[in-house]
Amino acid sequence: MLTQQEMEARVVRYGELIPCRTAFIDAHTPGSNQKENFTIIGGGVSESADQHVHITETPGFNIGAAGQPPKCRNSLHSHRTAEVFFVLKGRWRFFWGRWGTAGEVVLEEGDIINIPTGIFRGFENIGTDYGMIMAILGGDDAGGGVIWAPQVIEDARDHGLVLGENGKLYDTKNGDALPEGVKPMPLLTDEELKAFPETPVTDVVRDYVARYWDLMALAGKAPAKVIGENALLTDKPGFEVDFLTRGSIPETRYENPNHEVLMVMRGHWTLEWEGGKTVLAPGDTAAVPPALSHSLTPSMSGEASLYRVTTTDDPAGPTWRS
């Protein structure tokens, strides 16, 4: 049995998220220097020792978030494992390619994108207010870090930040220097860059994007399978994603043999188990341990939705289908 205190330690409240403003190499680069990064479950891919980690135990994947004011963007980078985002607040443009010009898609609140591995991608808040996107990264170590487009590393160096080959950031404006024996992160060569495709926009939107109101319709009587085998976005990135609404919640308590993470999109949800109950609000994240019998109930009238992420035995690696 899990006590109330033990479960509360597994819940990260939106209002208690602790940001890091120096998480990545573009933290000083104009246009990207107002980003806030949040590491909710697992260490994520932050390059800064200042990054606060809310829950260190990883369930086979990492959960994070990015908060940005209008017109702030995240620079072009790639990952070796899955990177999934859903828009919690605002309106966001996701773009990709060597120079960010191969394609783009605009996501509204609740929309979800499973960005293919092996392509450079970035994102920008194009709304009028502070925006927030929630992230799921494949693997316990999230693929070992970020692969930056060469121009990002060069731009960062011009503004005082140097990334070491050890994956750590050094701020020359603060008097930091690379430790003895540590070299700067090398730029990708022209030959290495050939492995990063200029993916057509139709391929990404068709295979990797799901719209919130489509999911609301699909989840009318049962949870909508969003990412996973036989899901709307067919993929095996080491986890599955379901979408639940008021009409699709299990009628009784259920046990999941695997780790389960609940990420609330809309409404307030009561999570109940033998030992206690707690209410989850939009932006809250709850890590439910395996084999815990629990139930979910919308605790207020009106719109209610959440994403449920479950560990699978599939490898955390490549999601790109050429």
Quickly count the helices.
5
Largest sheet: 7 strands, mixed
Strand content: 35-45%
Distance between the termini: 46 Å
Q: State the helicity in percent bands.
A: 10-25%
Question: How many structural domains can be distinguished in the coordinates?
Answer: 2
The order of strands across the largest sheet is 1-22-19-24-18-16-17
Structural class: mainly beta
- The rounded Rg comes to 19 Å
CATH topology-level fold name of the largest domain: Jelly Rolls
Number of strands: 24
In CATH, the architecture of the largest domain is Sandwich
CATH superfamily of the largest domain: Jelly Rolls
The H/E string reads: HEEEEEEEEEEEEHEEHHEHEEEEEEEEE
Regions with little confidence, pLDDT below 50 for 5+ residues: none
Task: Identify the CATH class of the largest domain.
Answer: Mainly Beta
InterPro entries: Cupin_2, GPI/OXD, RmlC-like_jellyroll, RmlC_Cupin_sf
Protein name: Cupin
GO molecular function, one term: metal ion binding
Pfam families: Cupin_2 (PF07883)
